[in-house]
Structure formats: structure tokens, C-alpha cells
């Protein structure tokens, strides 16, 4: 879905979001909230430059607009898989972005993310999965690794993985499967502005993913194992 259509639905009264290459930045009005918007488009590959640009946008919001909520609009095909970016230390750039997001949270900025197109691999970690509340449109494509790549890594046949994906969301891409695993808090349908308003009112800085994964039946052991470890500490 085009980001402009999504922005119009999120901010029906007024918004000012600009696109520079694959980067989105600006603001919009949702009910009583003025919301900073930072995001990506064109199935962006997150390389060193884009990670720095997003981090700079986060820092600008924290410096100029204290405690203003931040909405990440996510559309990424993952981290850029190029020798140049790896040699530059792309992991460090991604970590810098994640640190900036965490710093914003600690300064009182509510962080919301919305996957409106696709979210793959490391490009999703430093912004989308760092949010206080993570949502997606139902038609969004979310995955860490496609089945062909997973087959090569695990040495399990693609046919077997496809069969497993029918009963286990861990092996299957798609927004609904990530919802079951607790990776998403909710799917946004209908009135996106109302969905955003509700998310802003109910967001907190507690990580609910393993608990929701257990409750929804998509990630059955994470919470159990963590509680056992904590109990033996």
C-alpha cells in the first residue's frame, strides 16, 4: 500500500510527511495528539546511510519536541546485504538507531510502529520491534527468513518446512502468524486514526511479547522458560 494512502487514513485532518529517497519523516495530527512520523518506503534496504538518517530524525524529535509520540511506518526488505555496508559495520549503525529509539523512550516519547507493507529481517528490528506497541495492516508481509533460505540454513527440506508452517506460526510468514507469536500487539483494520489513538492511550514500555505469544498459542515455551530461569535466580 502506498504510504500516502496510509498517512491520509492515520491523519485525516492534517499531516505533513515528506519523502527523501526511501526515508519518510514529518508529523501528523491524530485526535489530541501531534505525532512525529519516521519511516521507510519502496521496500527499503536499510543500509548505513538510511540507518543514520532515521537515527538523526529520532534525535531531532527528542531535541525539538519533548515527549512527542513517534510513529514508525515500516516498509523494508531488511538490512542491506552488501560487502560495503558490512565492512562499514552496518551492525553498529543499526545499534545506533536502536539506542536512539530507546533514548527517546526513556525521555518520555511513546513509540508506535505500523508495518504497512513489508518487514523483513534486521530492517525491522531497530525500529518496528523496538516500539512500545507494534501493529500491522492485515495484508502486510512480515518474516525473518523465507522458507527457501530457511531450508538452506537448517538443512530441512523446503517441503517439510512448508508442511510445518501450516501448524506452526514460527515457520510461516505473514502478519497473522506474527500476531499469534506475540510479535505484533494487534492488526489495524478499518479506522486507522482510531487505531492509532487507541494505541497511544494504551502503550507502555513493558515487553508483553512472550506472554501474548503463550496466550495466543503461537509461542508456547518462551514465557515458561523465562519464568523458570527467574525462579532459579
User: What share of the residues lie within helices?
Assistant: 40-55%
Shape: globular
Q: Main beta sheet, described? A: 9 strands, mixed
Report the oligomer.
Answer: single chain
Count of DSSP H/I helices: 11
Mean pLDDT, to the nearest integer, reads 91
User: CATH topology, anyone?
Assistant: 2-enoyl-CoA Hydratase, Chain A, domain 1
Which architecture name does CATH use? Alpha-Beta Complex
What's the gyration radius in Å?
A: 18 Å
CATH class: Alpha Beta
Could you tell me how far the N terminus lies from the C terminus, measured between alpha carbons in angstroms? 47 Å
Into which percentage range does the β-strand content fall? 15-25%
How many strands? Answer: 9
Class computed from helices, strands and strand pairing: alpha/beta
CATH homologous superfamily label: 2-enoyl-CoA Hydratase, Chain A, domain 1
Low-confidence residue ranges: none
Tally of structural domains: 1
Order of helices and strands: HEEEEHEHHEHEEHHHEHHH
Could you explain the architecture of this structure?
This protein has helices spanning 3-10, 48-64, 83-88, 90-106, 122-125, 147-154, 158-164, 175-181, 192-202, 209-215, 222-232, and strands at 14-20, 23-30, 33-40, 44-46, 70-79, 111-120, 133-136, 141-143, 186-187. The protein is globular and about 50 Å long. Helix 2 runs parallel beside helix 4. The protein has one domain (3-206): 2-enoyl-CoA Hydratase, Chain A, domain 1 (Alpha-Beta Complex). Helix 2 links the parallel strand 4 and strand 5. Strands 1, 2, 3, 4, 5, 6, 7, 8 and 9 form a nine-stranded mixed β-sheet that branches. The chain has eleven helices and nine strands. It is α/β, with parallel strands linked by helices and 233 residues long. 44% of the residues lie in helices and 24% in strands.
Amino acid at each position: 500500500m502506498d504510504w500516502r494512502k496510509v498517512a491520509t487514513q492515520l491523519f485525516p485532518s492534517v499531516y505533513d510527511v515528506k519523502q527523501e529517497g526511501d526515508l519518510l519523516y514529518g508529523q501528523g495530527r491524530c485526535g489530541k495528539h501531534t505525532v512525529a512520523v519516521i519511516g521507510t518506503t519502496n521496500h527499503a534496504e536499510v543500509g548505513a546511510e538510511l540507518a543514520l538518517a532515521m537515527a538523526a530524525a529520532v534525535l531531532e524529535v527528542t531535541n525539538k519536541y519533548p515527549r512527542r509520540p513517534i510513529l514508525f511506518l515500516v516498509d523494508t526488505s531488511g538490512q542491506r546485504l552488501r560487502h560495503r555496508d558490512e565492512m562499514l559495520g552496518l551492525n553498529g549503525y543499526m545499534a545506533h538507531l536502536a539506542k536512539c529509539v530507546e533514548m527517546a523512550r526513556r525521555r518520555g516519547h511513546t513509540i508506535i510502529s505500523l508495518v504497512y507493507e513489508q518487514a523483513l529481517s534486521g530492517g525491522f528490528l531497530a525500529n518496528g520491534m523496538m516500539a512500545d506497541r507494534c501493529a500491522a495492516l492485515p495484508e502486510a508481509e512480515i518474516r525473518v527468513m523465507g522458507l527457501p533460505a530457511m531450508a538452506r540454513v537448517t538443512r530441512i527440506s523446503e517441503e517439510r518446512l512448508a508442511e510445518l508452517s501450516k501448524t506452526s506460526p514460527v515457520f510461516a510468514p505473514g502478519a497473522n502468524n506474527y500476531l499469534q507469536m506475540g510479535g505484533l500487539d494487534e492488526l489495524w483494520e478499518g479506522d486507522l486514526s482510531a487505531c492509532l489513538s487507541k494505541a497511544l492511550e494504551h502503550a507502555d514500555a513493558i515487553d508483553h511479547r512472550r506472554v501474548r505469544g503463550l496466550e495466543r498459542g503461537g509461542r508456547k515455551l518462551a514465557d515458561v522458560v523465562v519464568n523458570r530461569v527467574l525462579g532459579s535466580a
